[in-house]
């Protein structure tokens, strides 16, 4: 009588002591006729539910948050009369602000692409999102360090907070994307 592994649903021969696919002990194997609960459990962990709901909310709000940063931090910095004299005498500072606007615009485009991948459940989404998280943190960090070097007297606490949020998000979501059964079951196309 053939049995199925209760962990991965692979067929296990009666003489085997361990599943050849996942390595679980045969004692945990179920008879083939008792495989329905495992399939139902697999279907229950598929789709946008559980922690992926929070992920979806963050993805939808992400482009809006980055656009808000452009309009509340970058553009006002360029148009503030207090900064005009400094920017005209330090072209590198103006270039840095423009490069941050370009970086944030690129983040918006990439977040829109990630939204498409997420809601169409593309197989590449988890890797694309991990790449985005790493690049986002690195971009914010480099930009912040350059601003800190050029504007030693400026209050850069807003940038520090953004770096902290990005780092915490990476530490939470990257392991989730790599280890979650729901992620593996949902992004299969």
What does this structure look like?
- The protein has helices at residues 36-44, 51-79, 81-89, 91-119, 125-150, 157-179, 181-186, and strands at residues 3-4, 11-12, 30-31.
- By secondary structure, it is mostly helical.
- It folds into two domains: 3-44, no CATH class; 51-186, no CATH class.
- Strands 2-1-3 form a three-stranded antiparallel sheet, with no helix packed on it.
- Strand 1 (3-4) and strand 2 (11-12) form a beta hairpin.
- The chain is elongated.
Question: What's the quick description here?
Answer:
With 189 residues, the chain is mainly alpha-helical. 69% of the residues lie in helices and 3% in strands.
Q: Key features?
A:
189 residues, mainly alpha, three-stranded antiparallel sheet, 3 strands
Strand content: under 5%
Q: Strand sequence of the main sheet, in spatial order?
A: 2-1-3
User: What is the overall number of helices?
Assistant: 7
Report the end-to-end length measured between terminal Cα atoms: 34 Å
Q: How many independent structural domains?
A: 2
Helix content: 55-70%
In round numbers, the mean pLDDT is 83
Order of helices and strands: EEEHHHHHHH
Kindly name the structural category.
Answer: mainly alpha
Shape: elongated
Rg? 24 Å
Low-confidence spans: 28-41
Q: Tally of extended strands?
A: 3
Question: The biggest beta sheet, please?
Answer: 3 strands, antiparallel
Detail the topology: elements first, then pairings.
Elements: E1 3-4, E2 11-12, E3 30-31, H1 36-44, H2 51-79, H3 81-89, H4 91-119, H5 125-150, H6 157-179, H7 181-186
Antiparallel strand pairs: 1-2, 1-3
Helix pairs in contact: 2-4, 3-4, 4-5, 5-6
């Amino acid at each position: 009588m053939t049995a199925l592994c209760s962990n991965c649903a692979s067929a296990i021969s009666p003489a085997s002591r361990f599943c050849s696919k996942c390595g679980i002990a045969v004692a945990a194997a179920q008879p083939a006729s008792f495989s329905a609960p495992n399939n139902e459990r697999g279907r229950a962990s598929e789709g946008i539910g559980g922690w992926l709901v929070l992920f979806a909310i963050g993805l939808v709000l992400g482009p809006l948050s980055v656009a808000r940063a452009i309009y509340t931090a970058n553009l006002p910095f360029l148009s503030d009369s207090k900064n005009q004299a400094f920017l005209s005498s330090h072209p590198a500072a103006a270039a840095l602000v423009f490069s941050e606007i370009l970086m944030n615009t690129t983040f918006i485009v990439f977040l829109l692409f990630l939204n498409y991948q997420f809601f169409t459940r593309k197989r590449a989404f988890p890797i694309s999102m991990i790449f985005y998280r790493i690049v986002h943190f690195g971009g914010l960090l480099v930009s912040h360090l350059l601003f800190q070097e050029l504007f030693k007297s400026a209050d850069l606490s807003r940038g520090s907070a953004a770096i902290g949020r990005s780092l915490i998000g990476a530490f939470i979501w990257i392991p989730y994307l790599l280890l979650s059964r729901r992620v593996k079951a949902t992004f299969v196309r």
